[in-house]
Each structure stands twice: as C-alpha cells, then as structure tokens.
C-alpha cells in the first residue's frame, strides 16, 4: 500500500470512531438520566421551601412524576 492510502484509511477510521463514540456516549447519557433524574423529591422540597411555599407530600410526588414523564417523553423523541 502507498503512504497516501494508509493516511486515508487512518483518517476514515478516526472519523468513524468519532461518530460511533458520539452516538454511544449520547445513548449512555440518555439512559443514565432516565434512571437517575437530576432532580429528586428532596431537591423539589428544598426548592419549594426556598420559594416560600410549604410543600405537601402530594404536591412533591405530583411534581416528581411530572418530571419523570417529561423525561420519558423526551427520551422517545
């Protein structure tokens, strides 16, 4: 093989690796955030207290479920 062909194959391999790595990392992060949402019930409680509201368990669970449903809907897109 000539040097030009070797360089071409290396460049193609790097491009394919970069594309596959990007989509693999994207898929992993989507799955991670669906399993471990960044906002949990304790954080919601703290946010509501800081806003001056007295949080009820019903309202906190309702907000947490809404966040989970929204993240699942975005994951399906």
Query: Which of globular, elongated, flat, extended, rod-shaped describes the shape?
Result: rod-shaped
Distance between the termini: 45 Å
Strand content: under 5%
Counted up, domains total 2
Q: What is the count of DSSP helices, taking H or I runs of 4+ residues?
A: 3
Major sheet description: none
Q: Helical proportion?
A: over 70%
Average of the residue pLDDT scores: 88
Q: Give the H and E element order.
A: HHH
Low-confidence stretches: none
| Total beta strand runs | 0
Radius of gyration: 22 Å
Give the class from helix and strand content and strand pairing.
mainly alpha
Written account of the structure:
The model has no long low-confidence stretch (mean pLDDT 88). This protein has helices at residues 3-35, 41-50, 57-76. The chain folds into 2 domains: 1-36; 39-77. The protein is 82% helix and 0% strand. α1 runs antiparallel to α3. The protein contains 3 helices and no strands. The radius of gyration is 22 Å and the shape is rod-shaped. With 77 residues, the chain is mainly α.
């Amino acid at each position: 093989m000539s040097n030009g062909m070797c360089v071409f194959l290396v460049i193609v391999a790097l491009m394919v690796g970069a594309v596959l790595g990007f989509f693999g990392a994207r898929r992993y992060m989507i799955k991670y955030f669906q399993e471990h949402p960044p906002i949990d019930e304790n954080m919601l409680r703290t946010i509501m207290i800081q806003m001056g509201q007295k949080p009820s368990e019903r309202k906190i669970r309702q907000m947490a479920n809404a966040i989970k449903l929204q993240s699942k809907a975005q994951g399906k897109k």
